[in-house]
Amino acid sequence: MKFSTLIAAGFALAASVSVAFAEDISGAGATFPYPIYSKWADAYKKVSGVGLNYQSIGSGAGRKQIQAKTVTFGATDIPQKEEYLNTNGFVQFPMVMGGIVAIVNLEGVAGGDLVLDGDTLANIYLGKVKTWDDAAISKLNPKSKLPSLPIIVIRRSDGSGTTFNFTTYLSAVSADFKKSVGAGEAVEWPVGIGAAGNAGVAANVMQTKGSIGYVEYAYATQNGLAWTDMVNSAGKRVKPTLSSFKAAAAKGDWANAKNFYLILANSPGEASWPMMATTFILMYAQPSDPAASSAALKYFDWAYSNGGKMAEDLDYVPMPDSVIAQVRSAWKGIAK
Amino acid sequence: MTTISESSKNLDMSLSNDRARVLKSLVFSDTLFSFATRAAAYAVLLLLAGIIISLIVGAWPAMKAFGFEFLVIQRWAPQLEPEPVLGALAPIYGTLVSSFIAMLIAVPFGLGIAIFLTELCPHSIRRPIRLAIELLAGIPSIIYGMWGFFVLGPFLANYIEPSIVAAVVNIPVLNSIFSGEMVSNLSLFNASLILAIMILPFITAIAVDVFSTVPPVLKEAAYGIGCTTWEVVNNVVLPFTRVGVVGGVMLALGRALGETMAVTFIIGNSFKITGSIFAPSTTISAAIASEFAESEGLHQSALILLGLLLFVLTFIVLATARFMLMRLEKRAGA
Fold it and tell me: What are the backbone dihedrals phi and psi of residue B280, each rounded to the nearest 5 degrees, phi first?
């Protein structure tokens, strides 16, 4: 994380706050989709004159805000179960997807030089694979000469949707990990250093020799960090690219996912990237301010129709057309 | 003669009437003033009571669920099914150890600077040094955090800590305190060092103040019988100001215990007690800062309980400091 990026983010935030008028759409939640939501919002404001006031405060905090009705929509990287949705009277739909990558800081290792499989990655995060020249890693990377450096594990210190999706994947591929750590927003990590936010993990990996971390793909590319390739569930080595993200996304069985409850971890298919995250929107089925609610839906509708290219520019994966059609029909459940 | 005394009597009468009126209005404004200040003072008490009560209310579910075991459980597993297992031992350990190391570094440095400033320093550089130390106290803690993260941490991890690890690798006990297994930019020791820099100005400022309460005649007498500067400091200045110095040190300790932002940046936020000071750890305030926003239910309640524990800990430290400073004032007055 460069200072300039921080400053730019600060200015962007200040600017977005200063142009927020009363009729702006208000939302709060996940940090992961914040870049694309604000990019869409800029473009949408030009065509419609309606702006977006989005507080990127984290999935859990976003859920609390929508429960407290201080915002029109909440954004969460963790799909919510039916019971939660029914208790609160929420409608849930997916907005955009993205890939999670493992990033490493090793001298002479660039993006895509190394490959890991799920089991090895899980063992690194369990503290069982301790050094870079461990047999498990060198077996996967026979051509790379890896140093006998200790692996410094970096993970999130705050509750996070990225952690949820990452640990869901590790639990899916490693019975050990599932048993001793499990999947969740904030898990009991056996090893490692905790850093706040995707940006914090990226900054820590940049600063620490011999470290490994996990971030949303965009944070790796923006900070010029070396990501690793992964061996997917079909046993094939894949690179984190838009096409491998799309291949994984296409395997999602959205048609049979009630309330769009679907976690895209360890997708089948030879071209699929194994670690994916989907970000969701929560809105009231019976909104207290129907006008604000339908203004928000108009924005989402516009984003589904016109935002695909913008999302891909930022390395997000737009929802497939079939899912968008499904979402639009789910919107009928929201009172106008 | 009589006329003069008559008129002066009249004058007296009118004066005392005036005086009564003025006094009456003074009494009124005085009562109002005293009432206003009293209300402000009581409001602080109310506020304090309110904070304590709301902390206890918030912490109640965690107290009920974990009881006194909260203090000895080392695990921090908020996502465990069906019930989370949360214990305060790791953050309490991190808080105490980081503050202890910080004091170990800052106390000798701070007192050394204070002694230099009051006993040895040429007048021309006394002001610049004092000013620099006061500026150190004015730097916001987030700046210390960023500096620690980007500059101090990598420097220590790359150049200093590996050689310490190598030096003690064969010495039992020391090789586990300075274990090389997890040397990284973020660790308990790096956080302690930042804390030491942050509390240094407090120790120095208070020590300078109390050192200057030593009556010059005592020092002059000591110098007169041929004492060295070290002997004067050791046998006259320090014994005379001991209580005040300890009070100042306790105030600094209070700050170290509660420091949040800088520590959260560089301690590594790991709920593990490893015994090594080069390993990442966490403190009570760092744990609250990094987890509170995304916490719910029992997890949140446990964080509030942590806050209550820190409150009690800091209160004890500050009360002790106040008590000691009070004793010093009594002695200075006598």
Answer: -65, 155
**What SS3 class is residue B228?**
coil
The burial class, CB within 10 Å (0-12 / 13-18 / 19+), for A175 is exposed
Name the band, by pLDDT with cuts 50, 70 and 90, for residue B7: low
Give CA–CA dist B80/B268, Å, rounded. 22
Instruction: Pick from B79, B86, B147, B298 the residue to mutate for testing the A interface (most A CBs within 10 Å).
Output: B79
pLDDT for A213 equals 96
User: Quick check: B9 pLDDT over 60?
Assistant: yes
Identity of the residue numbered A87: T
Q: Write the ipTM.
A: 0.76
Mean pLDDT, chain B, whole residue set: 88
Q: Do residues A307 and A256 lie in contact, with contact meaning Cβ atoms separated by under 8 Å?
A: no
Kindly report the nearest CA distance between residue B262 and chain A, in angstroms.
13
Each residue's pLDDT tens digit, B97-120: 999 999 999 999 999 999 999 888
Identify all chain A residues contacting B270, using CB atoms and an 8 Å cutoff. 189, 191-194
CB contact under 8 A, B154 and A59: no
Give the confidence band of B183 by pLDDT, cuts at 50, 70, 90.
Answer: confident
Peptide bond between residue B140 and the one before it cis (omega within 30 degrees of 0): no
Please state the three-class secondary structure of chain A as a single string: CCHHHHHHHHHHHHHHHHCCCCCCEEEEECCCCHHHHHHHHHHHHHHHCCCEEEEECCHHHHHHHHHCCCCCEEEECCCCCHHHHHHHCEEEEEEEEEEEEEEEECCCCCCCCCEEEHHHHHHHHHCCCCECCCHHHHHHCCCCCCCCCECEEEEECCCCHHHHHHHHHHHHHCHHHHHHCCCCCCCCCCCCEEECHHHHHHHHHHHCCCEEEEEEHHHHHHCCCEECEEECCCCCEECCCHHHHHHHHHCCCHHHCHHHCCCCECCCCCCCCCEEEEEEEEEECCCCCHHHHHHHHHHHHHHHHHCHHHHHHCCCEECCHHHHHHHHHHHHHCCC
Per the CB < 8 A criterion, the answer to whether A295 and A336 are in contact is no
- CA-CA distance, A265 to A249, in Å (whole number)? 10
Is residue B78 helix, strand or coil? Answer: coil
The pLDDT, as a whole number, for residue A80 is 92
| CA A13 from centre of chain | 20
Looking at residue A127, its pLDDT comes to 92
Q: Which of B75, B158, B280 sits opposite A193 (nearest CB)?
A: B280
Mutate to test the interface with B, among A188, A201, A205, A211 (most CBs of B within 10 A): A188
Give me the residues of chain A with pLDDT under 70, please. Answer: 1-22
Residue A182 and residue B81: Cβ atoms within 8 Å?
A: yes
Q: What is the pLDDT of residues A251-282, one digit of tens each?
A: 888 888 888 998 888 888 889 999 999 999 99
